[in-house]
Every structure is written in structure tokens, then in C-alpha cells.
Amino acid sequence: MQQPSLEPAAVRPFRPLALVAAAACLALGLAGCTDSAAEQEAKPDRPVLVTKVHFEDIVPERTFVATIRPRVESDIGFRVGGKVARRLVQVGDKVTPGTPLAELDATDLRLQAEQAEAELHAARTALAQAEAEEKRSTELRRRGWASEAAFDRQKAAAAEARSRLARAERSVELTRNNLSYATLTADTDGVVTATLVEPGQVVAAGQTAIRVARLGEKEAIVAVPETLLARVRQGEATVTLWSDPDRRYAARLRELSPAADPTTRTYLARFSMPDAGDEVAFGMSATLTVRGGTGEKAARLPLSALFNQGSGPALWVVDRETGSVALKPVTVARYDAREVLVTGGVEEGDEVVALGVQKLDPAQKVRVVEALAY
């Protein structure tokens, strides 16, 4: 006996239509999956930019702000006191030995020289008279007409006159020297870095009047913290000017202060620059770079080659023959501004992807289009 249907009569006519629609949807889905698989198989190899791994010694660098200064800078002053009459140089003037720098009012010095000359003439006159009397006394003593005491007095007077003449001659020389000291002159080739006197100023003997820097060897002066003293002593140093950062000058440690500055607690270091020419001016700002090897080797690679999604740094290594890529974890020694130093995880000569590492996956084929020299 046939069981009666529980479905409403209005629903029964629509069952065949629903089955037909489901079949059509299934056919369309299978067609879409087939097309997607076909597209994936036909997808071309991804072009990649690679760089070769090359291990070299890690050379840590440390930079310091430096100032270019002369190795020898002399404070020149008058050897006699007086009133400054003229200053003959300006800051920045180049001088040679004998170049006049400043002059004193030489009126008093000239009077002293004239006085010494007068005393010299008087001493010569007195000596001539004493020698004549000594000669007469000697003759009288020989004939027996003069006493021994009188002869001794005339002899002592002549000796005193000779001494006075010698003293007068030395006095003349000293006053002449003092008169020449009224003109301050340079004693070496150099450049004027400071003028500390002006006309009308009264200066004492030895007071600094003009500062002259010698044009010989130039130096880079830096302040070194005590934690970096060993690196500064042993490292290799170079200097770059802020005005010309593309050129490097060799530098050599010449002097390291034995005591720290009481305020900054740093040590003053002087690095000589034997290759510095006229383009390196005194007072220029520079950067001193000290490099010192540690014996450890690392590969220097661009930061864009590093891949990290939370499981640690890694690199995509490319196999040119098969066109495949493999993700290899690496050990990083240091991160720089645009580079990374890798000490392990890859081998010498490996080619790693340098750009676009976030878009790669291990199943993807790649094609090397260019090798980046790094």
C-alpha cells in the first residue's frame, strides 16, 4: 500500500527545478577550479634581483666628531713692554719668517739706546785717560820716581775703566736689541689665527699679541670616552670633512692625553693628517672613523634581503639551475642603517634574493634577472 506524501502539494512541482539548479552550480564550480589550476600551472617564473654572499672580516667602526687644528700654534708676544702703535696683520693672513706683525711706540726705547751710546763714549774717554796715566805711572816707577802704592792705584783705575767700557758696550747691544724688539715679527711660515692686541693698548713683555698656526702638519682633535681608549690606540683611523664627505684622509694617532678632562671625563686625542693639503682649513668640522678588526667573518648584505615573519631572520637562497628558492635561517651580527651583517646560515657564494622577499614562497619558481654587487 503506497504511503501518502507528507509534503504540501504546492512544493512538489518545484523539486525537479531545484535539482537542476544544484547540478548547474556544481558544474560551474568545477569549471572555475579547473581554470584556476590551469592558470597556476601557466603562471610565469617571478623575476628576482639577487646578490652573492661574500664573507669578510668584521671591522667595527666608531665615529667621533673632530676639529681640524694645526699641530703647532704659537702665541707670539713682544719681548719688551710698551704701547702698541700699529697692528700690521689680520686674521687669516699668511706670513713668512720675518714678516712684521705689530709695532710698539719706540720713543722710550730709542732714548734708552741713545743714553747707552753716550755712556759708551764716556767709558771710552775714561779708559783712554786711565791707560795714559797708567803708562806714565809705569815709566815713573821704572825710574824710581813713583811709589809702589801710586803705581797700584793707577793700574787698578785702568782696569776699572776697561770694565766700564765692556759694560757700556753690552748696554748698547741690549738697548739696540730692545729697540728691534719693538717690531714683532713671524719666525716661521704660518697663518694668523688670532689678533689679541689693538693700537693704543699697553702690553707687558711676553703678553700674547698674535697667534700664528704653522702651515705644516694638520691634526684632527677628538674627545674619546674611556671605554674606547683601547680601540683608538689599536684601530685604523680615517678622517672625512663635513664639507667633502666623499674624500677620506689617512690619520695616525700622535698624542693621547694621559688624564681625563675634569668636566667631560673624556681624553683628548690628536690624530696627525700627513696627506692634508690646502683644501683642509683650520677649524673645519670633520668625522674621525676608527676601525678595528675582531677576527670574526660576516657577509654584508642589504637590509631588504632579510626576511622575518616572527620566527627569526632568514634569507631566500636561489638555485639558478632549478629556479627554486629556499628559506634559510641566518645569524645576524649587527644591523646598520642600510645593511645587515650575517655570520651564519648561508655559504660563501650563495645567491640570495635582494628585493621583494615578502612576495616569495618555496613552491614558486624564480628567474634571476640581475645580480646586485654588494
Automatic annotation (TrEMBL):
Residues 1-37 form the signal peptide. NCBIfam families: RND_mfp (TIGR01730). Residues 222-292 form the CusB-like beta-barrel domain. InterPro entries: Beta-barrel_RND_2, MdtA-like_BSH, RND_pump_MFP. Residues 75-210 form the Multidrug resistance protein MdtA-like barrel-sandwich hybrid domain. Gene3D superfamilies: 2.40.30.170, 2.40.420.20, 2.40.50.100, Helix hairpin bin. SUPFAM superfamilies: HlyD-like secretion proteins (SSF111369). Keywords: Coiled coil, Signal. It comes from the Bacteria. GO terms for molecular function: efflux transmembrane transporter activity. This is RND family efflux transporter MFP subunit. GO terms for cellular component: efflux pump complex. Belongs to the membrane fusion protein (MFP) (TC 8.A.1) family. The keyword Protease does not apply. Residues 106-178 form a coiled coil.
